[in-house]
Amino acid sequence: MGEKPVDHVALAVCMIDISSDIRRKSLNETGLRPISNGVLEILRVVESHPGVTVAEVAARLGRQLSNVSAQLRELVAAGLVTRVKDAADKRYVSLHPTDESMRIKSLLEGAWADALTKASERLLPEEREQIAASLPALKRLASFLAEPEQAPEQ
Fold first, then answer.
1. What sign does the dihedral 85-86-89-93 (CA atoms) show?
2. Cα 107 off chain centre by
């Protein structure tokens, strides 16, 4: 018996819908002011890779450097990211999450988990088991998708 093909369109749409609904349903739970998806993505890269540069964030997200720089200025002004100049090369600036950023990350992730928990309670036990069993593969998939964008070969 062969491997059952994955309907990647259905998977992608489902993941986007789940992500959007989790964010919407959990926003009121945290009491935080809304954070745009673009800014949140940048913040999550900085939190996952402390010491990353602006260019590396842009590459990881496949975005224009100027757009990422503008959004990072917002995060720095909000006290969520710090810029640290290299002692040896003042042109090199690394980005680091602040304690406030990590507090917000914890609040958001807790609210996201709560939203999923409430929705999961309505699933059948075997459906919850299927989701639990797929989590290692989904984590690997997420790690592959998180890799920096590769420039097309010339």
1. negative
2. 14
Residues 6+ apart with CB under 8 A from 19: none
Strands (E) across 1-154 are located at 81-85, 93-97
CA dihedral angle for residue 149, residue 42, residue 142, residue 131, rounded to 10 degrees: -160
Cβ neighbours of 75 (radius 10 Å):
22
Residue 120 in tokens: 């999961």
Neighbours of 93 (CB within 10 A): 15
* Integer Cα distance of 71 and 129 in angstroms: 39
Q: What's the predicted TM-score (pTM) here?
A: 0.78
Coil, strand or helix: which one is 85? Answer: strand
Query: Among 124, 127, 75, which Cα is nearest to 101's?
Result: 75
Tell me the per-residue pLDDT of 110-138, one tens digit each, with 9 for 90 and over. 999 999 999 999 999 999 999 999 999 99
Whether residue 53 contacts residue 91, with contact meaning beta carbons closer than 8 Å, is answered with: no
Calpha distance 81→72 (Å, rounded): 8
What amino acid occupies position 43?
L
Q: Pseudo-torsion of CA 64, 66, 70, 73, nearest 10°? A: 110
pLDDT tens digits along 3-24: 888 899 999 999 999 998 888 8
